Amino acid sequence: MFKVAILTGGGDCPGLNAVIRAVVRRAEFHAFEVMGIRDGWKGLLETEGRTQRLTLESVADILHVGGTILGTSRTNPFKRHNGAEKLLENVAELGIGAIVAVGGEDTLGVAHRLHELGAKVVGVPKTIDNDLSGTDFTFGFDTAVSIATEAIDRIHTTAESHQRVMVVEVMGRHAGWISTYAGLAGGADVILIPEVPVHLDRVCEHLQHRRLMGKSFSIVVVAEGARLASGELPKKSARLGDEFEHERLGGIGQLIAEEVEKRTGFETRVTVLGHIQRGGTPTAHDRVLATRFGVFACDLVAQGHFGKMAALRGAEIVAVPLAEAVSKLKTVDPALYELAKGFFG
Ligand code: F6P
After folding, report:
1. pLDDT at res. 25
2. What number does the ligand 1 atom closest to the CA of 104 have?
3. Which atom of ligand 1 lies nearest, measured to the CA of 277?
């Protein structure tokens, strides 16, 4: 029986289990055997105890469950001595005919390089940050935006009661998609994103203007990857990088809140949503998108179309080259950000 391996890599994301389930269900149709690989690419480097046969039973009742039944890691085989060679040897030894890699820029970057080395890989685009090229949306993003929007709604009422400035820090390492969407949906008065350096004087002027206009409170939504135009960094910036050389983010919300309070005299509080955005049950939208991606990825394997990623273009699921998906990050459309700015204040 042709053996398809599936792994989930990088930060987890609501909808991963929906993809795993969809691949296993579709594999039945194609008469493939599915092998689950634990802990992302690590599971193909250190295989001991990290492989398991996935059956219809093992993927029952996981559609609505957050996280990933396969576990995940930020392992980069290309950072390990002879890592890629070892991984390919293990793939051959395990009798794996094709790999479905579910991940973002890092995991799919590895998938692309392995494909160039001859591995039969297809990709499924995952990330709450929605910053992967080649696809209009990744699954997980809708859930994260829904959670962040609900949080902003809740913060709205307490901001109003206390007449405070409330800074809400959301995820978004390189791109401010969550910040822009949740900020728009939640009626934020200022939205700050990594793509546009933050001028604190302008933010403060804007908040002061709102006060003058009789608005007693304000909500500022900031992506964790946003940076001040002055170059000042959040205090906790000495953090270890991972195997993809990403530093651990966090602290920009606190820095902005402190500066706003100091410069305007407005009482200011900060809320960091953090991993709440990544955990828990996926929205119906993400379950459907993840399911469509999983089925399509399995079909790509059946057709022998490797080096491709399932992608959403408009309403259609299409195949795009992994090379295109990982070539550059998909940052926020400037026109959308301009539109959002029209609602500031
Ligand atoms: O890649 C998605 C993401 O949510 C980023 O926005 C964030 O910087 C990162 O994951 C944090 O992940 P972790 O805390 O798991 O390293």
Report:
1. 98
2. 1
3. 4
CA of 173 relative to ligand 1 center, distance in Å: 7
Q: State which ligand 1 atom lies nearest to the alpha carbon of 225.
A: 8
Tokens, residue 85: 């060679």
| Residue 15: burial class (beta carbons within 10 Å; 0-12, 13-18, 19+) | buried
User: What is the DSSP secondary structure assignment for residue 307, as one 8-state letter?
Assistant: S
Render pLDDT for 248-261 as a digit per residue (tens, 0 to 9). Answer: 898 999 999 999 99
Question: 11 alpha carbon to ligand 1 midpoint, in Å?
Answer: 6
Query: Is the shortest distance between the CB of 223 and ligand 1 below 6 Å?
Result: no
Q: Which residue's alpha carbon is at the smallest distance from atom 12 of ligand 1? A: 11
pLDDT at 237 over 70: no
Whole-model pTM over 0.85? yes
Q: What is the mean pLDDT of residues 203-218?
A: 97
Residue closest to 10 by CA, chosen among 44, 45, 39, 46:
39
CA–CA separation, 300 and 322 (whole Å): 13
Q: What is the pLDDT of residues 11-60, one digit of tens each?
A: 999 999 999 999 999 999 999 999 999 999 999 999 999 999 999 999 99
* Beta-ladder partners of 289: none
Indicate whether residue 128 lines ligand 1 (CB < 6 A). yes
Greatest Cα pair distance, the chain, in angstroms, is 71
Rounded distance from Cα 222 to ligand 1 centre (Å):
15
